[in-house]
Amino acid sequence: MASEDKSLNFIEQIIEEDLKSGLSQTKLHFRFPPEPNGYLHIGHASSIALNFGLGIDYQSPVNLRFDDTNPEKEEQEFVDAIKKDVEWLGYTWAEERYASDYFQQLYDWAVLLIKKDKAYVDSQSSEDMAIQKGTPSTVGTDSPFRNRSVEENLDLFERMKNGEFEAGTHILRAKIDMKSTNMLMRDPIMYRILHRHHHRTGDDWKIYPMYDWAHGQSDYLEEISHSFCTLEFLPHRELYDWFLDQILEDNKLRPKQREFARRNLSHTVVSKRKLQQLVKEKHVNGWDDPRMSTISGLRRRGYTAASLRNFANTIGIAKRDNLINVSVLEFCIREDLNKIAPRVMAVLDPIKLVITNYPEGKEEWLEAENNQEDENAGFRKVPFSRELYIEREDFLEDAPAKYFRLTLGKEVRLKNAYIIKGESVIKDSEGNITEIHVTYDTDSLSGSGTEASQRKVSGTLHWVSISHAVEAEVRLYDRLFTDEAPDSYKEKNFLDFVNPNSLEIVKGFVEPSLATAQNEDKFQFQRLGYFTVDKDSTPSKLVFNKTVGLKDAWEEKGKKEENSINNSLKEINKYFKVESKPERIAIESAIGENIKNVTSFSLIQNSLKKNINNNKASLLFAQFILKYSNWKSPDFEEDDIKKLYSMSLKSESTYVRSKALLNLRDLENESLRNQYDDEILKLYSNPPKNVSDREKDILSEMVKI
C-alpha cells in the first residue's frame, strides 16, 4: 500500500478505495502508454513518475506500452528514444508491449461487433461525415450507410483489411448514439484505411485501429487495473467503458480509466506537433536541443534524472490544469547540482590581469575545495601565475562607491589565492582596456593563517591562469520563449515568442582540471552558474552547456517589469493634474519608456485587460499600451480592443479621447478602424464641452481621411 506517512493524492485515494472494496493488491497493474511519434517531454516525465511511482509504492508491475496505431507519424527512432528516456529517469518496466501486438485480436473483436450489429462500414466522405455528426448544440443524423446488413459490413471490412480500397474510401464505425451529448459517442471511428509501412508489422495491415478502440482493449488484454490519462481524455472515458462492455468476460479484470491534470510548464511548449515544428523549421537544433522541453533536451542541457523526479513530486498530481512556473524546475536542478557538482573556475568574457610584483616564470599550485556542500568531495590543485584571466565585468576603471569588485586603488581577493590591488590599465588605440595591472600582498594567501590572509576586502573574484588555461566553447542557453504561455493566445502564433537570445556561444577559458571532462559531467563555474559537458565535446575541443544560473534572473526581471507597470499606473494620475503641455509630454514619455521595456506579453495583455474600465486614468494607460508596447492592436483579443476604443471615445476626458483617436488613425486594420466612423463623425459634429484644440485638430484630420 501507499506510504501512510504522507498525505495521499486523489489518484492514490482511488487505488486505496478499490483495495478496500475487495480488489486484491496482487491485481494492481499500471502502464505508461506513449505514442512513438516524437520525443518525450517534461509533461511525460510527470506521467512516468506517477505510473512508475505507483508501481514502486504498491510493489506492482508497470508496463511500457507503445500506442503504435498510426504508421504515418511513428518511427523506430522514437521508440528507442522513449525507452532510453524512461531508463535514464531510473525506472524499469515489467513488460514492453505494443498496441500492434494486439492487431489481430482487435480485428477479431471488431468482426464480433459487426456480427452483433454494433459496428458498420461507412462510405461517406470526411466532409459529409463532419456535417452528419452534428455539433455540441445540435444532434447528429444517421449515416446513410448505418443500416447496412451485417453480411455487407463483414464483406467490406474484410476487403478493407485485404487492401482492396484506397485510403478514405471506407471506415469502420461503432454504432452507438448519434444523439449523444458526448460527441465521441456519436458512432466513433474504429478503423481507417492506411497503406503505410508499420515499423513493427511491416505491410501486413492495410487498416489500423483508432486510439479509442485500441487503448482500452490493450489495457484489458494486459490486465491493467488502473489506466491513468490526462484530463483531455475525460470525455473518452464513456467510450472506453462502452467498448469494454462489448468484449468483457466475467472472469477477467476490468480496467478503470481515471484522469489527472496536465501540468504545463511556463516559457515552453509541450505539444508534440509544436515541438516537431520547432525542429523542422530549425528554430532549434534537433529534438535534444538543450532549449527544448524534451527529456533528452533537458538531459543534454545538464538536468539530472533526480531533479526531474523531484520536480514531478514537487508539483504533484491535480484535478485541474495548471501552469507551473519553470523556475520551480530550475530550483530542483539547482538544489541537486548544489550537492553534487564540483566547484571550478572558468572565465567566459576574459580580460588579462598582470600581477606586476609576482615573479616572472613562477607558478604555484594552490589548494581549492571541490564542493563545500559535500565533505567527501576533497580538494584539488589549481595553478597560479603572474598573468591571469578575470571576467571583464569584474573590473571598472571609474567605479561607484558601492562597487565591490576590482577597481583602481582598491583591494579584492582572488579565490583560493591572494589579495590584489588595482594599480593601472593599458588601453588600445580606441580606448578599450586590454590589460589590468595589479600588485599582490605576498602574505595574504588564503588559508595560510597569516594576519594578512584574514584581512577583510570588498569582494572575491574567480580567475584562470593564462599559461595553464584550457580553451572551451560555452553555450549560454536561456529560455526558448519570452512569454510564460506562448501557445495560449488566440491572436498570436506561438513562434512569435521565440526568444532571439535563447542561445549565445562564447569562447571561454577553464582551469586545467577540466581538460579530461567527459560527456554529461557537471560543474559549478564559480559565480557564473552550473554547466555540463555537451556530447559535441572532444578531447581537442571542450564544449559546455549552461544548465542554469546561480540565481533566477527571470524572476528578478519579471518583478522589475511588474514594478515598472505598477509605478506607471501611479504616475498616470499626474497626467491629468499638471498644467502645461511639456509636463504632460514628459510624463507620457517616461510611462511610454517603461511600457516599451516590458518584454512579457502576458503582463502587457493582462495590464490592458485590467484597465479597460470607466476610469479615465485606466483608459489612458490602456491607450498608452497600444501606442508604446512592443505589441499592437492585432496582437490582442479583438473583443478587448473594440471595448477599449468604444469606452475611450465616450470618455469624459479629452486626453483619453485624443489618444484613442490617434491610435485609431494609425491602425493598419482598416475594417476595425472603419467601425468607429460614426462615433468619430458624432464627436466632430457635436463635440463635448471640454473638447481641446488638439482633439479638434485630430478629428478634422480624421474626418478628411
UniProtKB/TrEMBL annotation:
Q: Which domain of life is it from?
A: Bacteria
Q: Which reactions does this protein catalyse?
A: tRNA(Gln) + L-glutamine + ATP = L-glutaminyl-tRNA(Gln) + AMP + diphosphate
Q: What is its EC number?
A: 6.1.1.18
Q: Where are the stretches annotated Disordered?
A: 125-145
Q: Where is the Glutamyl/glutaminyl-tRNA synthetase class Ib catalytic domain?
A: 28-338
The protein's matches in PROSITE patterns, at most eight in alphabetical order, are given as:
AA_TRNA_LIGASE_I
Checking InterPro entries in the record gives: aa-tRNA-synth_I_CS, Gln-tRNA-synth, Gln/Glu-tRNA_Ligase, Glu/Gln-tRNA-synth, Glu/Gln-tRNA-synth_Ib_cat-dom, Glu/Gln-tRNA-synth_Ib_codon-bd, Rbsml_bL25/Gln-tRNA_synth_N, Ribosomal_bL25/Gln-tRNA_synth
Q: Tell me which Gene Ontology terms the entry assigns under biological process.
A: glutaminyl-tRNA aminoacylation
Q: Where is the Glutamyl/glutaminyl-tRNA synthetase class Ib anti-codon binding domain?
A: 341-441
Alphabetical keyword list: Aminoacyl-tRNA synthetase, ATP-binding, Cytoplasm, Ligase, Nucleotide-binding, Protein biosynthesis
Q: Where is the composition biased (Polar residues)?
A: 134-145
tRNA synthetases class I (E and Q) anti-codon binding domain location, by residue? Answer: 460-534
Write out the similarity annotation.
Belongs to the class-I aminoacyl-tRNA synthetase family.
| Protein name, entry field | Glutamine--tRNA ligase
- Recorded source organism is Flavobacterium reichenbachii
Q: Organism classification, top ranks?
A: Bacteria, Pseudomonadati, Bacteroidota, Flavobacteriia, Flavobacteriales
